[in-house]
Amino acid sequence: MANRTVTLQGNPIALEGSALNVGDKAPDFTLQSGSLQDVTLANFAGKTLLLSVVPSVDTGVCALQTKKFNEKAAQLPDSVAALTVSTDLPFAQGRFCGAEGIDKIQSASDHRDVNFGKAYGVLIAEGALARILTRAIFVVNPEGVLTHVEYVPEVAQEPDYEAALNAVNA
């Protein structure tokens, strides 16, 4: 089932789905917004899309990652969209974003069928964390092609913000 892993505090965690690479066509997805509307890749057609994937916005590193990208998103042109993706329920994402003043980056949930997690190779496949997404960053250009892919090897570490933002601005 799973032949790829990341670690959490040094312990291996199996992932489901194939790894994506720069140059691949970004897989479509259907996520759920805080207003329970579908969010798909097509919603961002013609824009550069930064996908910030986190296990849960209610954990320290995930909250920090979401806050940092929210700050950076305020400085990006209108031709760029930013989206935080987790399997947190849409209501939990909305509560977190409201409490933390997150207003430049959107959030969307993969809780229904984890189709995003499977398609992007970020779904934790088994164990106590099953059905949670691992930490990753993807940048999709306006043509729907991946220009940056980072699967953070240690879930408890932050991603390379600079590399992701350089890809957004390229």
How many strand units? 10
- The first-level CATH class name: Alpha Beta
pLDDT averaged residue by residue = 94
% residues in beta strands = 25-35%
Shape: globular
What is the CATH architecture assignment? 3-Layer(aba) Sandwich
Q: Please tell me how large the radius of gyration is.
A: 14 Å
What's the name of the CATH homologous superfamily?
Glutaredoxin
First-to-last CA distance: 36 Å
Helix content: 10-25%
For this structure, the CATH topology is Glutaredoxin
The largest pleated sheet is described as: 5 strands, mixed
**Topology as H/E string?**
EEEEEHEHEHEEEH
Question: Spans with pLDDT under 50 lasting ≥5 residues?
Answer: none
Structural class, from helix and strand content?
A: alpha+beta
Give me the number of helical elements: 4
Number of domains: 1
Across the major sheet, the strand order is 7-6-5-9-10
Multimerization state: single chain
